[in-house]
Amino acid sequence: MKIVIVGSGAVAINLAYGFATTTNFQVDIAARNPQKAKDIADGLDLKVYISSIEKCDTNADLYIIAVSDRAIEEVYQQLIQHVDQDSCIVHTSGTTSIEVFGSEARSVGVLYPLQTFTRNRIIDLRDVPFYLEAKDEHLKRVLVMVVEELEAKWDWLESDKRKAIHVAAVFACNFTNYMLACANQVLHEEGLNISVLQPLIEETISKALESENPIAVQTGPARRNDSRTIYMHEAYLKNTPELKELYSIISEKIMKKFE
């Protein structure tokens, strides 16, 4: 099978690396900035053919658009000017509907990898769950072949439910990482490293996943309605007003939850 991955960001490079190293598929990368894609691929010792979108293989079995949500429609319109009308084309977005391809499009769909991807950090795609959507039976067969060749977990999921997963993922992943960055800022001011929190972070995530509802295992001064401790913490944060504001807002939300 021949796959062309359109894009040069973290998702595109991870997919290209995963397909090229763990499957028998032939993988190309098509990018609006081919030199950028080549520099990244070279840094990972990733041996794939890289071209512009205009010069990509026009007879690939699958085209995967792995770009930002706001660029999907534009890139799709650019791509269909150069490839066969019946080409199988998918995007990788959690939030963007399959309808972004238009009502007349046939072999179009979604290949959504539920994971956080960072440039220059390669993830084993066999550990990533994929959520699929397809408009026709041919593309369904192609997508199943792709994820099964990867030996990845997968399921079919319509756009609205996929969007719910993506929203939840922002809370669970992106917001959590920002909170860790805030914790790191507090520690850094005292010459401490975030590694001191590692056992705490691991236990927090572990018990949240083991519980039926993470709110049931909520702890901390706000959960206890410990206003004295909260006041002292807010006083400690007086020189970092943005952290103090965030601390107060989250504490208030937790206390309200347990009224």
UniProtKB/TrEMBL annotation:
Gene3D superfamilies: NAD(P)-binding Rossmann-like Domain, ProC-like, C-terminal domain. Residues 128-253 form the DUF2520 domain. Coiled coil: none annotated. Residues 2-91 form the Pyrroline-5-carboxylate reductase catalytic N-terminal domain. It comes from the Bacteria. This is Putative short-subunit dehydrogenase-like oxidoreductase (DUF2520 family). It comes from Acetobacteroides hydrogenigenes.
